[in-house]
Amino acid sequence: MLSEKEMIMRYKLGDEDCLEMLIQRYMPYFQSSIKRYRIKGYDVDDMLQECRLVMLCTIQKFDETYNVCFFTYLNRLLHNHFCRLLRNTTTQKRCGEKQCVSYDAFEMDNYVGKGYSQSLNPLDVLLVREQFDCAYDTLTKKEKEAIYQKYYVNKEKKGRNHHLYRGKKKIKDAIRCL
User: Cα–Cα distances in Å, from 81 out to 29, 63, 134?
Assistant: First the structure.
């Protein structure tokens, strides 16, 4: 059985099998690390692939003169890498106005399916419609009826303003949470 130092030296000299041996040695650690981070859009295989990439970078950057053991260096790089991925996914949620669509700017007519703006990305339209359907299913019977009367029949029944307001608010809140 080779030590970490021997496997690192052999990999740097061109032995690709040593990389796989190191990855297999640290696989339980990678699996426990994956459980600590939830990154939207990444499944277990993606996270394991990220761990493999970090292992490769760690081997290439590691130097014994750092006065730190290999595992500590790997642990720090892996933690930093996952934090960077989390920051990237968070900033994508808060990207600028040119890349994001403000769902507050639309009127209820747009939510119901009539008159989507041409500037919308088709994926955004799909997401809004899916969220609308989910939110619509949670409305009470009177709220659904009030929205149906207002936006599909183009009549507003008197005395239903409260139900209409509550239904619109629930739907807008659900869509805003995208």
Answer: 15, 19, 35
Highest mean pLDDT among 16-20, 155-159, 170-174: 16-20
8 A C-beta contact, residue 156 and residue 164: yes
Mean predicted confidence (pLDDT) in 149-174 = 73
The DSSP symbol for 103 reads G
**In the structure encoding, which two tokens stand for residue 3, read together?**
């030590």
Q: Is the pLDDT of residue 30 over 90?
A: yes
Task: Tell me the DSSP string of 53-90.
Answer: HHHHHHHHH--GGGSS-HHHHHHHHHHHHHHHHHHHHH
Cα-based distances in Å from 147 to 109, 117, 123, 161, 168: 10, 21, 25, 10, 8
Would you call 122 helix, strand, or coil by DSSP? helix
**pLDDT at position 52 over 90:** yes
CB 85 within 8 A of CB 42: yes
Contact 78, 124 (CB under 8 A): no
